[in-house]
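Hi R.,

Here's the chain you asked about this morning:
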Amino acid sequence: MNDPFERLPAAPVFTVTSESAEDGKPLAPAHLSGLLGMPGGRDESPQLSWSGAPAGTRSFTVTVYDPDELTGSGFWHWAVANLPASTTSLPENAGDDGGAGLPRGAVTVPNDLRSVRYLGAAPPPGDGPHRYVIAVHALDVDELAVTSASTPAYLGVQMLGHVIGRATLIATAEAP
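And here is the predicted structure, written out as tokens:
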């Protein structure tokens, strides 16, 4: 299976948990995409908490990525950079249109629909279950040179050489 971190340098592991998403389990309807027609979908980002980040952490990024989307490059649902090192959690729906649940200075990079928000899971009908890799990266810099006009791929380039820890939770979704 496609591992989005397989070709990246190894990084020490820390822990990410969620009150609204479970590792290996289907996402709740709130975290599916109503914008893309998933029944009950509300495009609300899941609550996230993390702990055990390595010493020297100066900022975090949070991403949600579907490596199973049949695009040849997967699909980015959410990408947030420049979360201060003091941030250890995000409330449910922090990824709304205004990013009201994000700390000051955080930058939401547009998802693959070019929307600056969390876009819920929406695998195509008949495609089977998709994985949604929720990743928190600990970085050794205060800020990355990204804006709300950047792309998730550019965010990844900016992270190269700065990741000092990685926490992942992998949830699933399947079209009815």
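One quick note: The mean pLDDT is 96.

Cheers,
M.
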